[in-house]
Amino acid sequence: MPRKMTMTEKILAAHAGKDDVTPGDNVWVDVDILLTHDVCGPGTLGIFEQEFGQDARVWDNERLVIIPDHYIFTADDKCHRNIQILRDFVKKQNIKYYYDPDFVNTEFGSGFPSAYRDPRQTTYKGVCHKALPEEGHCRPGEILLGTDSHTCTAGAFGQFATGVGNTDAAFTLGTGKTWLKVPPTMRFDFHGEIPPYLTAKDLILAVIGDIGFAGATYKSMYFAGSGIASLSLEDRMTLTNMAIEAGGKNGICDVDEKTLAYVRNRSTRPEWTVYEEDDGAEYDYRNQWDLADFVPLVAAPHSPDNTKTAYELQQQNVKLDRAYIGSCTGGKITDMLFAANILHGNEVRIPTFVVPGSTEVHADMLRLNLYGRPVADADAHDTKANTSVYDALQNAGCNIGPASCAACLGGPQDTFGRLNEPINCISTTNRNFPGRMGHKEAGVYLASPLTAAASALTGVVTDPREYVAEPILTGEAGLV
Asked: What predicted TM-score, i.e. pTM, was given to this entire model?
């Protein structure tokens, strides 16, 4: 009789053609989707052609997804060259799912590209981890590999998603397979309903603060309980996104109707398999929290596990020079709604940079009001109903850039929002190691969009409970 298994174990067993697997087993598995982008894509494609031959064909031209996103808005010619390498390979291999930054001229010396005029009228999509589910490439029960450490974001959809190196990706590109060690599973249960002053960013910072930045090394992080069920699908993506910040091999959440409604509406393929945890499955570690006991958290420089309460840092009067709201962790439409509701009718005290996670998010910022409903449906006497998310942020004094990874990974000197000086920044991004967002002596404070927005208004790290008296409505934002 097959052993009791976790979701991660079941997915790996199914893709290995086995009845069951045990943590520590090494298995060959079939891969459903391989993701790459402009940073690691050229290296992966080069290794593929070197090892399989210049005329070799990829294993499946509909299962490779290429989403340029990291170094798009820059005058750097090397970055432009990377995009041209992707374009050439896509044409040669007839790759179906390539999301081109069609406004980028890759000729040497072409300079800084003009951004898309309309986020709805471009083949470019923005950050790969946000664009993947939007474009229908995330499904329960599948295996998704990506040449990016935050590929684990897709585990929010009940799939096994993990980052791999260029060489491993090149092997999969030629064979459709990879060799994996089955990870043990750590279980994190959250009880209760998410309070209005918290987001999933606070939850994952609590987990990382508890187990440390290496506490989940090569382990599966399973997020469960009524508290997770109360989160939006986008907020669950924040949890799984930052599994890697504790060293996790993957993060994963249960599949529920929120998940299925989104996938049914978006998927490029008609079938998938939903797996559930077995009663009696073995866990390497377990912990649980009651969300009623939670307070807003911040990770102080220079590690995601250096957690403090926002109130504690506020009492210390920790001064900030900049706020940054964006990235695959904090650039989703619900993140933008959270920030916009706090900033609406106010003015930021420090330079505040806002970067949509995708062109769809950018379009939704223009389309939706502060209740997450179309502005066209607005009540003429209700300013929140008449104000778009974009306008609320812009009117508060935010600098809003085009969708991309932007300053999250630092990038070239001309990157929007990059920390080019040793300044302090509160950020909704996922990593705050020295130099991560630019200058190696800059201090990055990781926080939720609520905490980042509240802090932008005061110029010091600020507990958002001062600004959130009732639940922030998100309407149709991020649902399907």
From this structure: 0.97
